[in-house]
Amino acid sequence: MTDNPTPPTLVEHITASFERLTATEKRAARALLDNYPMAALGTAAGFASEAGVSAPTVLRLVDKLGFSGYADFQARLREELEARLQSPLQRSGSGPRESESEAHFLHRYAAQACENVMNTVRRLPATEIEAVGALLMDERRRVYLLGGRFSAALAKSFHAHLHAVRGNVQDISGQSAAWPEYLLDMRSRDVLVVFDFRRYQKDVIGFAEDASGRGATVVLFTDQWRSPAAKVAGHVLSARIDTHSRWDSAVAPLLLVEVITALVTDHRWDSIQARIKQLEGLQTQLQRHPE
Amino acid sequence: MTDNPTPPTLVEHITASFERLTATEKRAARALLDNYPMAALGTAAGFASEAGVSAPTVLRLVDKLGFSGYADFQARLREELEARLQSPLQRSGSGPRESESEAHFLHRYAAQACENVMNTVRRLPATEIEAVGALLMDERRRVYLLGGRFSAALAKSFHAHLHAVRGNVQDISGQSAAWPEYLLDMRSRDVLVVFDFRRYQKDVIGFAEDASGRGATVVLFTDQWRSPAAKVAGHVLSARIDTHSRWDSAVAPLLLVEVITALVTDHRWDSIQARIKQLEGLQTQLQRHPE
DNA sequence: CGGTATTCGTATCAAATATTACAGTGATTG
DNA sequence: CAATCACTGTAATATTTGATACGAATACCG
Q1: In chain B, which end has fewer C-beta atoms inside a 10 angstrom radius, N or C?
Q2: Which H or E run contains B219?
């Protein structure tokens, strides 16, 4: 064993050695990381079956990690667990030496995303979220969803969930040829949810303007710099999209979508429950896997 | 075993039964309470010697507590430990005396999402992300994206970005009728990216298995409980999806998608730049609004 | 003071578990 | 296309561990 001055945690050690592992060993390692450290506190065979591998694979894994046996491995596991339980909850898992610039891209990205989320919700009036939620709960209003080239995925996610809890929801992203028809059908009670982020798409903005002109209520998801469509929007939900990458992040926008979905779902859950049960019944092929 | 409406914790159970114990049994019980639950996570003999009693005493203790054996006792112990490990990562960071229950749903949801993100990236070997990135950079490999009912939005987002930086990317979500054809075309260099989350979809899993059988490399995005498709996946990226809502959160999974997108994009940026410029040129009619 | 009952540890046994050997399988390379 | 190599599960083995019977020790009661 190497005697580092600051011994790495087991999680770090595993992730560091990860590439040296074989495919099946990785599966076992991942199972452990996924529910650490519980997965390995029982017997090796139990751990193995839970990970979907054989016991010897688990044994080979702990051997590769440098332990002299499964017992040794578990001892180390419990040792760390004890330390973690005693100090209430500080840096659970990762060390303090994690210098900002040294951290892997993955971690920097994640930190940035969390900042985006926090900055987004902090600046967002709760009443705005609730107002949009209330709007979408109203089944008398037809709901149209529209996203741009990249934000169409957000519209799609929103549509999948909204459609599960209420009717009269349509995702019209992309089908710009059919837009005029939708426009014709639009009544003043209806709601158009628009996703428009940096590099704001002219056609999307134009459609929002037209819909607004016909009396529809426009709900706009955009970034902190605000799409021009904000001018005709009844509600604007702006989210942070900063990244260390060349693309913008949709994490914070997605969070807003999910929150509103949750609000709409949880409110009047009783009347929705039946619909979902029924819907799940129709999807018997989506069953959970037996064991 | 016991089906109490409000199951008492083990600690409560022990203190309640404390008086019924004999002197040395009490010594063992105290040892456990003193550093709970670590003391009993090892072998019964280890626990005994640590408590200064003999192994049979420990066995008699767990018997008196109503367990059917030491294994049963440990199972319960781990069960509680798991619950305890999952919760205590809350009030980390933000609001002063912002009471947990008082905070608006929006903020609670955001905090949970950030936890999900952090817990996801912490447990994810950086090499795994990079391996997937490397796979997708290889333009000789055709890439197929497949998501389920709700996760199709992730596939769509991934597709939009991947397709912007390379060719031979197809999103085949939903079009299950056409799957056999795609299967026929699949070569052993090809990559199938599967999104499969809780309520794992049988048809998606089946397709992943078939693709794997035909030699394709399967990359699986799933949750911490892992889709059965993990068995045939060459790479598994599991993300946390916990929420305070009735739906699962796709925030952490989206983050992983974005990180990989960033890696693929940033790597070999030069060769990609031309493609993007060209692509943007073709979309001049969709472009930025004057203002 | 003697007898009895409870308690506790030692020794033993049986069951569960880790470990190792081995062979089948698939992938890789020449 | 053959041959080799690496990988992984099955099965056999060795070891550990939980469980139990028994006897020594102590406290308690008559």
Answers
A1: C
A2: strand B217-223
Residues of chain A with CATH 1.10.10.10: 10-86
The C1' atom of C14 and the CA atom of A46 lie apart, in whole Å, by: 21
Contact A229, A236 (CB under 8 A): no
The answer, yes or no, to whether residue B99 has pLDDT greater than 50, is no
Chain D bases near protein Cβ (<7 Å): 6-11, 16-21
Query: According to DSSP H, which parts of A148-193 are helical?
Result: 152-165, 179-185
Residues of A in contact with B75 (CB under 8 A): 42
Nucleic strand C under 7 Å from the C-beta of B29: no
Q: Is pLDDT larger for residue B185 or for residue A86?
A: B185
**Does B108 touch chain A if contact means CB atoms closer than 8 Å?**
no
Q: Classify domain A10-86 at the CATH class level.
A: mainly alpha
Among residues B137, B144, B228, the alpha carbon closest in space to that of B191 is found at B144
SS3 at position A179: helix
A191 CA from C17 C1′ (Å) = 63
Higher pLDDT, A92 or B283: B283
Tell me the pLDDT tens digit for each residue of B251-272. Answer: 999 999 999 999 999 887 877 8
Interface touch B118/A114, C-beta < 8 Å: yes
Closest residue to C26 measured CA to C1′ = B215
Q: How far is CA A262 from CA A288, B68, B247, in A?
A: 23, 43, 7
CATH 3.40.50.10490 maps onto chain B at 110-284
Tell which CATH architecture fits domain A108-285. 3-Layer(aba) Sandwich (3.40)
The answer to whether B74 contacts A42, with C-beta atoms less than 8 Å apart, is yes
Alpha-carbon distance of A56 to A46, in angstroms, equals 12
Give the CATH fold of the B110-284 domain.
Rossmann fold (3.40.50)
**Mean per-residue pLDDT of chain B:** 86
Sheet holding A217-223, edge to edge: A169-171, A143-147, A191-195, A217-223, A235-239
Cβ <8 Å between A106 and B121:
yes
